[in-house]
Amino acid sequence: MAAKCYYTGKQGRLGNQIARRGKAKYLGGVGVKTTGISRRKFKPNLQKVRAIVNGKVVRITVSTQALRMGLVQKPIKRKPFTVA
């Protein structure tokens, strides 16, 4: 299974990490220079949780954003207490 959110579709993306040195001109320096550019990965915060999907309890990968939005319906851990 891919590292992708079941509900929002979030997955990793590629980008650049830019290393700079120097002091900004508005602070009195001669300007900021780029000293290196390297590739990096932006990874979403994905969690494996047990959730109810189509009436069954399954383990799925979801983003924390989906958890906070209330998109994930979690199963009941134990039966509620009843007085007989």
Essential attributes:
4 strands, 7% helix, two-stranded antiparallel sheet, putative 5-dehydro-2- deoxygluconokinase like fold, mainly beta
Strand content: 35-45%
Assembly of the depicted chains: single chain
- Report the strand count: 4
Overall residue-averaged pLDDT value:
94
Query: What helical percentage do the residues reach?
Result: under 10%
CATH architecture of one domain: Single Sheet
Our count of helices gives 1
Largest sheet: 2 strands, antiparallel
Terminal residue distance: 45 Å
Give the helix/strand class. Answer: mainly beta
SSE order:
EEEEH
Unreliable segments (pLDDT under 50, ≥5 consecutive)?
none
CATH topology of one domain: putative 5-dehydro-2- deoxygluconokinase like fold
CATH domain class of one domain: Mainly Beta
Rounded to the nearest angstrom, the radius of gyration is 23 Å
Question: Please, could you describe this protein's structure?
Answer:
With 84 residues, the protein is mainly beta. The chain has a domain at 13-69: Single Sheet (putative 5-dehydro-2- deoxygluconokinase like fold). The protein is built from one helix and four strands; from the N terminus they run ββββα. Strands 1-2 form a two-stranded antiparallel sheet. Strand 3 (46-53) and strand 4 form a beta hairpin. The two termini are 45 Å apart. The model has no long low-confidence stretch (mean pLDDT 94).
In terms of topology, how is this protein built?
Blueprint: E1 13-21, E2 33-42, E3 46-53, E4 56-63, H1 64-69
Antiparallel strand pairs: 1-2, 3-4
